[in-house]
Amino acid sequence: MVIRIIAKAHQKVLVSGPLHPQVYPEPMKFRLFTLTLVSGCILLGCSSDDPYARLVLTNGKIVTVDAQQPEVEALAVMGDTIAAVGSSADIAAYIGDGTEVIDLEGRLAIPGLIEGHGHYMGLGEARMILDLTTAKSWEDIVNMVAEAAETAESGEWITGRGWHQEKWDSLPPNTVDGVPSHHSLSAVSPDNPVLLRHASGHAAFANRAALNAAGISPETPNPEGGELIRDARGELTGLLRETAQSLVGAARARARESMTDEERAAEARQQSALAAQESLAKGITSFHDAGVSFATVDMFRQLADEGELPVRLYVMIRASSEALAANLTDYRMIGYGNNFLTVRSVKRSIDGALGSHGAWLLEPYSDMPGSVGLVTVDPEEVRRTAEISLEHGFQVCIHAIGDRANHEVLNIFEDLYGRSSDQDLRWRIEHAQHVHPDDIPRFGALGVIASMQGVHATSDGPWVYRCLGEERAESGAYRWQTLWQSDALVTNGTDAPVEDVDPIASFHATVTRQLQDGTVFFPDERLTREQALQSYTLNNAIAAFEEDIKGTLTSGKLADITVLSRDIMTIPDSEILETEVLYTIVGGNISYRKYDD
Q1: In whole angstroms, how large is the CA radius of gyration of the chain?
Q2: Is CB count within 10 Å lower at the N or C end of the chain?
Q3: How far is residue 456's CA from residue 479's CA, in Å, rounded to a whole number?
Q4: What is residue 175's predicted lDDT score, i.e. its pLDDT?
Q5: What's the Cα-to-Cα distance from 445 to each of 183, 228, 453, 467, 517, rounded to whole Å?
Q6: CA-CA distance, 205 to 197, in Å (whole number)?
Q7: Whole-angstrom distance, CA of residue 294 vs CA of residue 130
Q8: Which residues are CB-neighbours of 16 under 8 A, at least 6 positions away?
């Protein structure tokens, strides 16, 4: 066995006990460089009747991310919070007959990893449809669809996600905008509508049957904020960029109208359960869910009431300004279900993604000189959303990838910040992948959070130069260290299911910037390992107003802990990706273990 259990007295379960709806007070004001040390047993769950801990981790290297006590050997858990941290000898006093003790045998324990920007239900759904991330060519995708069509009923939709033309080994002839036409796909699935989403989520591919089901013809105009890609003859290729996806999506929704409410609820619950399973296996204890409907929040609240949310969720609502104005008052939740559900932020998107040429740029794409990308939501609508959020005390989180998109969002934020009496808004730009050099200092100066994803840079690196050209790529793309040094709060995540939700892979990308061919993508922008760990723990907690209860292994905070097989703070770069998650501990309960005891 890799990890030795000395004493066991508690049942190990997936969910950390019964959850009781309760609203906890909001954390204190934004503190970037100082931490409040809360003495044991003040917050949530320490019992004065029992002097012994329910769980002790000992004999390890515990990196706390707490500047007051950065590294210890052991910690003790009472209730769902950390009672004490210190030497193994100090913590031995907390061990009683009923204490479960994990001997770390020198291994690394860190604060529970927080996914700073992902799509929780999308992560679960990705495990229920075709996984196109493994495709190395268009032929691979056609073969996967052909196999699915063999067992599908006539008229049944075939869906998948994860293809990325930039990651294929080769392209077939006669591509348009670097993407094939639908004809070979349609040939293997004539009786089944097919909708395959791009890895980024900002484009999709439809076969002829899906286009017909949506009533799309070559004469169909482009929707606002989207494009139906056509070849030189004006014929549809099947590629749907940005909001054009909704045309086929609506057709699929109509096909699903026969589903009962019970079937829909069961499907949603399965997606949530699968997302939790994968997150916990990757060491994630909290998840910033970047954009869900009011209906999904209702389901999360019900799951919290039932004790069926094993991962702590920080949820951003995505809806129109009108819907937000009508409903936000009823949906604010902080620390609901014993700190498993918080809803206090709003998500909108102003542009698309670089990989699909949908990111909104100040100047045209180098490899598509006729396009500056797409505005997916009118800036005035984004402004209205921000105004409504400000009125209701909700955090604003805006997806912006291109330099024009980031510039416009910063302008909106700066204007509304000037009107607000609240100096602790912590508004966020989600992704901030390509920022004009003049706009980089504005993040720190305004207090705008750069909610970035380390793995995006190494995933996108092979084609960024082609998209943006050398000068723009070097001056504005994926500028993590530059943003950090300008006093911006930089957070980390994966944008799952766009990328694997694995935080170890994103940590590796953050500290190495190493591409698959071994080259390093803008090495000066690498974060140190200490910065990278902070970006995945404390910084993500701050970005969610939760630094008083999460982000460091400090007495009084929630006992959310990730135990790793290797010391990612010191091992060679080449060994980081070999690191395994041994334990994921949420609220003092072991929610995932790599090996059975």
Answers
A1: 24
A2: N
A3: 12
A4: 87
A5: 51, 40, 21, 29, 37
A6: 6
A7: 27
A8: 80, 310, 338, 586, 587, 588, 589, 591
